[in-house]
Input
Amino acid sequence: MAEDTKDDIKKEEAAPEKEVKAKATEAKEDKSAKEEVKADAKEPKVKAEKTEAKAAPAKRSRKKPKRRIVPEGRAYIQAGFNNTIITITDPNGEVLCWSSAGANGFKGPKKATPFAAQTSAEKTAEKAKMYGVEKVEVFIKGAGNGREQSMRGLLSGGITIDRITDVTAVPHNGCRQKKTRRV
Output
């Protein structure tokens, strides 16, 4: 038994030395494995970012917004002395389309002509047809040359006019008058 105990003691003494050596080698292996993992983790991220950057433009595709179908709407005509602007909205007042004499290529004094007002009204009517507008209530504002002609342009564009309302601002004795002339 004495021999057995001596052998056991030697084994016990040797065991901690082996454990220490084993732990040291494991720690070294862990460090090298962690470094390899870090290196591997860095490379795929860079590659993944490059591939995502290349793939991103191909994946980006905007959906076309669904156009609302609005059978009835409102047409606002602003007939100024220098330009005529026609806007078509839905019954709530949200703008569907608009056009003006200046937007249709007329410049300078030609913007104030009835012909420019008519062509801009026809273009607006074409755009409104894309939303399904068939009938409009017209609100006219201003005293420009394109008042009547812009309504004719809407009619020739295929839109039915339901009602015409003049909303031109009228002064209730508005601005102060010029002083009277003494002769």
In short: The beta strands are 72-79, 84-89, 95-100, 135-141, 160-166. The first strand starts at residue 72 and ends at 79. The chain has a mean pLDDT of 81.
